[in-house]
Design brief:
five-stranded mixed barrel; 260 residues; four-stranded antiparallel beta sheet
Length: 260
């Protein structure tokens, strides 16, 4: 069961099902937004001239689109297929699948508590969504460590939530850490260090990176990725960007690795 939602935001990626294809574009329904209808104009199907639109999009197909514009008063949602690259498509489809699984887990929790699914959302589901943005993200957090979750919420439902998460969620990511030792004796040294860390975060692109203050001059660099090789590459890219920027500004910087 999908939670009722309003309209997507401009720039958002959405999972759609193609309902009908015309020469001028395709009509789709948005799977995550109560089957609201959207439209992909032929010019937004692919880059370049389209001779046969069905070479690129067909009825019944699951696609990932970018929201170009929304007119909620008329119920119009304009979408682009060509604006989504393969990496974004894979990532969004996986996120969508994860949320579908999370909804099934909510059904299990509701059944064990002998309440309806709607009551489960009213009692705690919506609060969890507000805190974690995605249900599956909450279940993953609990499967990794339930302590933070237990400290954030209260209620008899928590034990059941934790139980279901541990039983059904297998963590599919790896996390590596390192310690950045950053020093600058310049009058604006603090700002130089902050700027260097921003350069590192920018170099990470869409990768999941966190730089946490430990205690001067130490900053913990945490990389989360699907596999170790990818995590190591991201670690190298981010740390190099931080170190190079601070050294060029006259500071000192070094990465010391820690195992997690």
């Amino acid at each position: 069961m999908s939670r009722a939602r309003g309209f997507p935001e401009d720039g958002e990626l959405v999972v759609c099902t193609v309902k009908s294809v015309k020469n001028f574009g395709a009509f789709v329904t948005l799977d995550e937004y109560d089957e609201k209808e959207g439209f992909v104009h032929v010019r937004d199907v692919t880059t370049g001239w389209v001779k046969y639109i069905r070479d690129y999009i067909r009825e019944g197909q699951k696609i990932v689109c970018k929201v170009l514009g929304v007119d909620s008063s008329k119920g119009h949602i304009d979408l682009s297929l060509k604006s989504v690259n393969e990496h974004q498509k894979r990532e969004k489809i996986q996120q969508w699948k994860n949320e579908k699984k999370a909804e099934k887990l909510m059904e299990i929790i509701a059944e064990r508590m002998s309440i309806s699914l709607d009551s489960a959302y009213d009692l705690f589901g919506n609060k969890v969504l507000d805190a974690y943005e995605t249900l599956y993200g909450a279940f993953e957090t609990v499967a990794a460590s339930a302590d933070e979750f237990r400290a954030e919420f209260e209620g008899d439902w928590i034990d059941v939530f934790v139980e279901v998460a541990i039983e059904n969620v297998t963590l599919s990511y790896v996390q590596i850490e390192g310690i950045l030792e950053l020093r600058s004796s310049a009058p604006d040294g603090v700002e130089l260090i902050k700027n260097a860390m921003k350069k590192g975060e920018k170099a990470a692109g869409d990768a999941k990176v966190a730089i946490q203050y430990v205690g001067a001059p130490r900053y913990r660099l945490v990389i989360t990725a699907d596999e170790y090789k990818e995590a190591e590459e991201i670690m190298k890219t981010v740390s190099s960007a931080v170190i190079d920027d601070l050294v060029k500004a006259g500071g000192e910087a070094v990465l010391k690795r820690e195992s997690k």
